[in-house]
Amino acid sequence: MLDEGSGVPEFTENATERVLRVPSPEAEMVTVAMSCALSDDPTTKPPSMLSTMKIWSLIEAASPPNLAFLQTLALNGQHWMLTRPGF
Fold first, then answer.
1. With contact defined as beta carbons under 8 Å apart, do 6 and 23 qualify?
2. CB 22 within 8 A of CB 32
3. Which of these, 49, 46, 69, lies nearest to 57 by C-alpha position?
4. Bridge partners of residue 23, in order along the sequence
5. Which residues contact 85 (CB under 8 A, 6 or more apart)?
6. Contact 4, 24 (CB under 8 A)
7. pLDDT in the model for residue 87
8. Could you give the CA distance from residue 80 to residue 55 in angstroms, rounded to a whole number?
9. Rounded to 5 degrees, what are φ and ψ at 17?
10. Residues 20, 1: contact at Cβ < 8 Å?
11. What is the CA radius of gyration of the chain?
């Protein structure tokens, strides 16, 4: 989350969310590299499991012949429908 101002980034985490606040001067243009990852680990907090993603349940329901490959892509952060590609 971008906040108007200056200072150091601030990370907060609780049982339901994780937020990174990055201050930026008003009208400043910045490029920010982001990444995200999913897991198959039910103990992550908050849950970031692939199985909790609605789009993944729709993919599974379609029963594509390459489902295992798609799951590997998703868990490696490489499936364009689930995780944002790096730049």
1. yes
2. yes
3. 49
4. 3
5. 78
6. yes
7. 46
8. 11
9. -155, 160
10. yes
11. 16
pLDDT tens figures, 2-37: 788 888 989 888 877 778 888 888 888 878 776 677
d(CA 49, CA 38): 6
Q: What is the pLDDT of residues 67-84, one digit of tens each?
A: 999 999 988 888 888 876
Residue type at position 73: L
Q: 19 φ, ψ to 5°?
A: -130, 130
Q: H/E/C letters for each residue in the chain? A: CEEECCCCCEEEECCCCEEEEEEECCCCCCCCCCCCCCECCCCCCCCCEHHHCHHHHHHHHHCCCCHHHHHHHHHCCCCCCCCCCCC
The dihedral formed by the CA atoms of 71, 76, 81 and 85, expressed in degrees to the nearest 10: -160
Instruction: Copy the structure tokens of residue 87.
Output: 């730049």
